[in-house]
Amino acid sequence: MLRETIRLALSAIFRNTMRSFLTVLGIVIGVAAVIAMVTVGQGSQQQVTKDIEKLGTNTLMVMPGQGGMRSGGFTSDRAFTRRDAEAIESELSSVRIAAPYSTSMITAIYGSENHLTGLAGADTSLLDAMDWPVRLGRRFTGAEERAGRAVCLIGETVRGKLFGNVDPLGHSIRLKALSCEVIGVLDAKGVSSFGEDQDDLVLLPLRSYQRRIAGNDEVALIYVSVREGVSTDRAAREIQALMRERRRISLGEEDDFSVMDMKQIASILSGITAVLTGLLSSVAAVSLVVGGIGIMNIMLVSVTERTREIGIRLAVGAQAGQVLMQFLVEAIVLSLMGGALGIALGLGLAALAARLLSIPFTPDPLVVLLAVGFSGGVGVIFGYFPARRAARMDPIQALRHE
Asked: If we measure between CA atoms, which residue out of 125, 128, 101, 94 comes closest to residue 226?
């Protein structure tokens, strides 16, 4: 009986193919939008977590000032010095590495090529703290770091922009008035969650940067790698106490620096992404309601057009429940067809977006099942009223209908 009812529903649907397609278009768009939004949102959250893990989940960032990151880098009236990093590393048992770091923008020149890039001053301890290997060449030696030698490491983007297919090792690039020898190429890290190309970088020994570029001994921030088995919360408290002492901050006064946990940053970014995904998905879900209204409207039209057919079925012995089931199944089939098309379209759009945005494509089977269930529910809810109207027709009046 159910098979015959479904067959009749499909026959009625394909009798007016274009009208049926336009009817379910709202369902298609709604389901596709929701699936695409949720899938892209989940991929974005995974990418955020992955990017933070590249920096190290046991990593802290100690920055001057309470404002955090601002345009132009990290700024404060009271900057850090190398000695602050040395004190954190030597005096705190919870700390494995404390790597001082300063940065600015500069134009790097090689031959006739030039490229505006990020210039960073740091020692190899930064590479250890961030678990950032050198893909080609070597790292700075201790002697080069202490003497402030004019040597540098470059990121993959800088290598491609300045050298193309030429091996950069042993060649010199010019940074303002400084000519530095390229001794290594850093392993590619890609684009961060903030949209920053992490490979667009030239790395100088910190002393070279301070003497030749910055002209001071200031440090913009300190990357801290916490020892294995030690919680970052404990390390953050110890760093806070030490820096308050070193910066002579009295009891009751606010810190003039901040300690940020990479896990906290990951949690904040993931939370923001989840909220935006939920908001956009809710807006997209409105089109499902619009699609349901469209199905109800077209089913009411169908009931009116097929009044004589309904009258004949009732006259030859069909029960009201059977007529109701016929039209209800027709509405459900319409809605499920729209849901199936929407799922295919949504996954396709999500896969395309993931490719363009360079984020993981992570379709969630639960979301797909919910989309199928929701589209079926729309068919039941918005198809019931037209089906009930058909089932309650008087057979005599229906047969008289022109």
From this structure: 94
